[in-house]
Design brief:
alpha/beta; Quinone Oxidoreductase, Chain A, domain 1; seven-stranded mixed β-sheet; six-stranded parallel β-sheet
């Protein structure tokens, strides 16, 4: 468009030059020439372009009437002058303006792109907030269900949430030195350690209830000094990176004597879905845990009791013995139990034992056993061992069965062990003695056993008693007291 504009303006100049007006005076011609140059400058400004060769020729022709002998160089020199208040025609200024315009357009484009990115980011943030809102609603529903199931309030959960977001320091009781005879407080050491952050697939456990059991006395012989004492606990998952074990899940863990621990979840056992709300969680360490299952399989599988038979149980007021006697009664057996205090004897009679006596106060254990069952015993569930068992064996009936569950009477012995049962009685009476560990039964049979125990409990056919000691710092004292027989029922430490 620029050449056409120049030609048009040049045509106007020629027409004006050849008009009938008298020639202008030199000064007037100079003024007119200046006006024509200004007009040309305005054309350059309007078209935003530089003059082509054809445009320069047209310009020279338009100046012919005044013979100005203007060359392209002279015209360029004019066009490069700095503009005054009345004119604007500098190519340098035009170029600068174009550069400024391009820069402004570039900035505007960048600003638009930036706004576009911000809009996209804002969109993503809105979508993220919606997703989080949906997730939070789902999590809140889960928390409400958990609170209803566990009876925990919002304050407890908020404390739990705060703990899970910080580094956790775990307290643990370790075996400082191996036991020499009966355990003493100095054999244990309380240590504190900071747990590392969770890895994918791991969970952080917080102990609620911890168990102390007779087997720990024997197992400690194989434990290295400085290691955490072994044992089961009921724990709550307070932080999780395992989708199968969300925060708040209650599990039974073999984490030992520690307040907090990290697990990959493989050995954790969730509580049964049918766990009654009215049943304490601590029963997962007693009647519905290892002791209850030991009693179940020992009396039903090892002894194989039948209705009408006579069953003898020692340490009958303990976590295992009390369940053994009650299951035997369910199966129609006559049950005789022994314990080491009058309070325990009263409890055994309360839960249905036919005969119970304090072996520590009788004049003769042999005579007391004969008096309790003159015809002898079909099944003997042994938790004590030692001299007690040596006294019982001769009073077993032919083809009698003996389930050897423990030998707590000799666990703390340091010298020579007492003589064992008379082999002659075992041979001629064709007795069957079998030791066992509850981990032998797994899978479906274990699930069935647990369902049976819970069913009998719900029907009021099995009762329980717990000896609960508060405070994690009392773990060693609870353990030593249990070995001495201070407990009635299952000994539990509440963390």
């Amino acid at each position: 468009m620029f050449p056409q504009d120049i030609r048009r303006r040049s045509q106007l100049l020629r027409e004006d030059a050849h008009s009938r007006r008298p020639p202008a005076e030199p000064d007037a011609r100079g003024q007119l020439l200046e006006q024509r140059f200004r007009a040309l400058s305005q054309a350059v400004l309007m078209t935003r372009a530089t003059a082509s060769s054809a445009a320069w020729r047209t310009l020279r022709m338009s100046l012919e009437p005044w013979k100005p002998q203007r060359t392209r160089a002279s015209i360029q020199l004019y066009l490069r002058r700095e503009p005054d208040a009345s004119t604007y025609t500098s190519r340098t200024v035009i170029k600068k303006e174009e550069e400024e315009k391009e820069e402004a357009e570039k900035e505007e484009q960048e600003e638009e792109e930036k706004e576009g990115v911000e809009e996209k980011d804002e969109g993503r943030r809105r979508r993220g907030r919606r997703r989080r809102k949906g997730g939070e609603d789902g999590e809140e529903n889960e928390r409400r269900k958990r609170r209803k199931r566990t009876g925990r309030g919002e304050e407890e959960e908020s404390k739990e949430k705060g703990r899970s977001l910080t580094m956790v320091r775990a307290k643990s009781w370790t075996l400082k030195k191996h036991f020499q005879g009966s355990p003493v407080q100095s054999d244990f050491e309380l240590k504190t350690a900071e747990l590392p952050p969770l890895k994918d697939g791991e969970v952080l456990l917080e102990a609620l209830f911890l168990s102390v059991d007779p087997y720990m006395r024997v197992a400690a012989k194989r434990l290295k000094e400085g290691k955490i004492m072994m044992g089961h606990q009921v724990a709550r998952i307070v932080e999780s990176k395992n989708s199968a074990l969300p925060t708040g899940t209650i599990v039974v863990a073999h984490s030992g004597w520690t307040t907090h621990s990290i697990s990959d979840g493989k050995e954790l056992e969730k509580l049964p879905t049918e766990w009654p709300d009215t049943v304490p969680l601590s029963l997962a360490l007693g009647t519905f845990g290892m002791p209850g299952l030991t009693a179940y399989f020992g009396i039903l599988d090892i002894c194989g009791v039948k209705g009408g038979e006579t069953v003898l149980v020692n340490a009958a007021a303990g976590a295992v013995g009390s369940v053994v006697g009650q299951i035997a009664k369910l199966k129609g057996c006559r049950v005789v139990g022994t314990a080491g205090s009058d309070a325990k004897i009263a409890y055994l009679k309360q839960i249905g034992f036919d005969v119970a006596f304090n072996y520590k106060t009788v004049d003769s254990l042999e005579e007391a056993l004969k008096k309790a069952s003159p015809d002898g015993y079909d099944c003997y569930f042994d938790n004590v061992g030692g001299e007690f068992s040596s006294t019982v064996i001769p009073q077993m009936k032919a083809f009698g069965r003996i389930a050897i569950c423990g030998a707590i009477s000799v666990y703390n012995s340091t010298g020579q062990l007492p003589p064992g049962p008379n082999p002659e009685s075992i041979i001629y009476k064709q007795l069957r003695m079998e030791g066992f560990i509850v981990t032998r039964w797994q899978g479906e049979v274990r699930e069935k056993a647990l369902k049976d125990l819970m069913k009998w409990f719900s029907e009021g056919k099995i009762q329980y008693h717990e000896h609960i000691i508060k405070g994690f710092e009392n773990m060693p004292a609870a353990f030593m007291g249990m070995l001495k027989g201070d407990n009635l029922g299952k000994t539990i430490v509440k963390a």
